[in-house]
User: What shape does this take?
Amino acid sequence: MFLVRYADDVAIVFAREDDARRAMEVLPKRFGKFGLTLHPEKTRLVRFAQPPYRWRAGRRGNSEALGFERPGTFDLLGFTHYWGMTRAGGWALFRKTAASRFRRSVRAIYEWLRKHRHWSVVEQHRLLTLKLRGHWAYYGITGNFRRLVAFRRVVLRVWQKWLNRRSRGNHMPWSRYLRLLVRYPLPQAKVVHSVFRRVAKPCF
Assistant: This one.
């Protein structure tokens, strides 16, 4: 087994299912000795073994007929970890923005734009640019590009919505909003942490 921990978030990976089940029974008692408890909703046992070669996502009926079990998923540090197919047809571990974190980020942007809808466009654009770059800096990992693009699209729609509600006489229809984006473009989705990006080696 091996353990991955950050602050109070932890994932314990076991090679054997019986060892995982024994640990699941013992952990609450061990934590209880120190006055600690496990989160009842976030603590669970997940079968996360690599699927068989013949198993294919989207063909659950066929896989169950062959006796294959659909692989589980789990959330850790804001990412959903799951098994996915590569372009070469093999299995690989992927991560994407967890649905709860995605909704929380959208809600935060929505509330910020609602409260600051009367700020100048220049200032709104400056802060939105910083917020998006901060989002890319954390969630911009290999395999998560679609979620980054989806988040940017939501931000674009929400910004247009609150610009359109700034006043009764100064509407912001989509055609005018597109012209505004030419002058004040928001940063494109970007994978900041790429497993394919080579690190330059120092030369001595």
User: Anything to note?
Assistant: Residues 164 and 172 are 4 Å apart (CA to CA). The first helix runs from residue 17 to 32. The radius of gyration is 22 Å. The first strand starts at residue 2 and ends at 6.
